[in-house]
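Technical appendix A lists one of the benchmark inputs used to test multi-chain prediction within the project. The record comprises two sequence entries:
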Amino acid sequence: MMRVSLFVTCVVDQVFPNVGMAMAEVLERAGCEVEFRESQTCCAQPAFNSGYRDQARSVAEHFLTTFEGAEYIVVPSGSCCSMISHHFAELLPGDKRVHDLEPRVFEFSQFLLNVLKVDDVGASFDALVTYHDSCHALRELKIKNGPRQLLGNVRGLRLVEMDIAEECCGFGGTFSVKFPEISGGMVRTKIDSIERTGASTVVSIDSSCLMQIQGALSRAGSKIRTMHLAEILASK
Amino acid sequence: MKTPNVTEALGDSKLQLAIYSATARMAERRRDVVSPDAMPDYQALRQHAHDIKKHTLDHLDFYLEQMEKNVEARGGKVIWARDGAEACAFIQKLARDRGVKVIVKSKSMTTEEIHLNDHLEGDGVEAVETDLGEYILQLGGEKPFHIIAPALHKTKEDVSDVFEKHLHSKRETSPEGLTKIARIALREKFLEAGMGISGANFLVADSGAVVLVENEGNARLTSSAPKIHVAVSGIEKLIPRAQDLAVFLKLLGRSATGQPLSVYTSFLAGPKREGEPDGPEEFYLVLLDNGRTKLLADESKRQSLYCIRCGACLNHCPVYRKIGGYNYPWVYSGPIGKILTPQFMGIEHDPWLPFASSLCGACGEVCPVKIEIPRILLELRSDKVAKGGDNVELWSFKVWSWVMRHPKIYAQLASAALSAAPTKKDSFFAVGPLKNWLSQRDLPVPPAKSFRDWWKERTH
């Protein structure tokens, strides 16, 4: 049996626990033995992206200690996953633990498709859905078709592409509060594109993009809801 | 940290539409011509271009000397300018010595960088921009809005207004008609001009050639009609061999406007030789440092100098597309401006600049010479933090980092925060980051319990 250690990310842990639950459920259904190491906290990205490398480094070290010996680490976020698999090496150059960790960290959809070799989890979800490509998943992890393939195999789900699926939602971590007007302008462009599809649900593999998109949809009084891919795949 | 006031640009729906549609048009054309079907070797070419630039800048001293030798062998003269003042002083003196009253200029960001026009104007010399976009802006007293499409923010109606006011032309809103008005006015200037000034897209070291790439033919006329030609170029524009142009010319037009090749590619190799009917009698190449050697010294960010000024990163940048070209502090706007400005001016000049990015990475993805703009932005952020100054933020991250290494305290603090999470009702009292968040968006509904609490209950 495949042993999987969840890194749920601080955003999912504290704001969107349903995403973590859904991910655990899908992985267990696919036959994995799932563990959650309670000493986990954050991937260190907020400090790293804000230029506080010393502070980020010590949190990255904490991550390494927490996940020591884990066979596979699965993350419900392209951005946090990329922080670990791509940027830890910049914080801790030459560190053997980072080198050993990289091939064992997977974003959730990548893990299903590339490790478990599952593209149909038996989910059903009756809705017209559009998929938002989150930037770090797309450009750093090269995740483009995987989530669409998984969505395509969900019973009742019809996938419709928005015209600017690859354009940033404007979240960008602290960018969203340091430059609120620019960030707000970006997300409004995004939700205009989402609205044009006629979809009832917008799906992503990053909860922080969804927090931004949901916040703007709600502000605009839209009925469109946001869901993480894991939540769709856990739907029966 | 003081940030620019972008409210006006964001609230101007006409401007937003102009930026959005013009950049989208260039981005779409680019996408079509670099697609795997249209150009199977595109990614390999990018890497090749990156490698050539890396090699050249790693051996810049050698190629600069080779360039100088070859320009002089063709009868031209090379002027080394440490900064903008030296470059301008040379050109001003030359104009004075030769009694030049009118100068025609083709589009050059480098001369914008050193404010050459202002210096010449101060001497009573008329320097006329002959690129259509630049000409429109010059008449209206404005600066370039975009690296390659300087008047991108102007509609046809705006241009007609400018021409009516400054050229006293009739109302005309067709692009052809407007071009004709400019053409008639500019022809006069080409005939009058005693000197032509251009920039340079590439400097070819092995042949001493200055290469100009353009679509309007004005750069060719600028460099061949007047008796004196001065090309002003940053020292980073070098490439080793003429054959390397095969790589760069394929990438430049495609990345900029989606053209397989720009309409005119001119090679300036010194003054005209005996028996040649056209061309300048005197030829000067001003090689400008103006801070470039400072960038060269920084190995991890040196690649910022690989830029070939195609503008693709601007067209794909969601921030540039919102705030436009005038909210950047220097002549170079967009993502490339965000990494060049702090390195040229010092990070303390505009400390907000590298932070004004969502780090989406679209710029790095489309850069034809593979400059890792997002990575350099992150390094600049770290450089800014190292300079100090924001103690509140520093201590916040120190506390944050400590909490993140103490999971029990993290869990307790997080559940306390959840139970105190603000709702729409009390958002009126929000301050700081929360206020900024709420200025644009709603907050998510806080969950009943965290994932870790749920997991604990599930397993026990």
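Chain A touches chain B through 65 residues (CB under 8 Å). DSSP finds 13 helices and eight strands in chain A. Comparable benchmark entries are summarised in Table A2.
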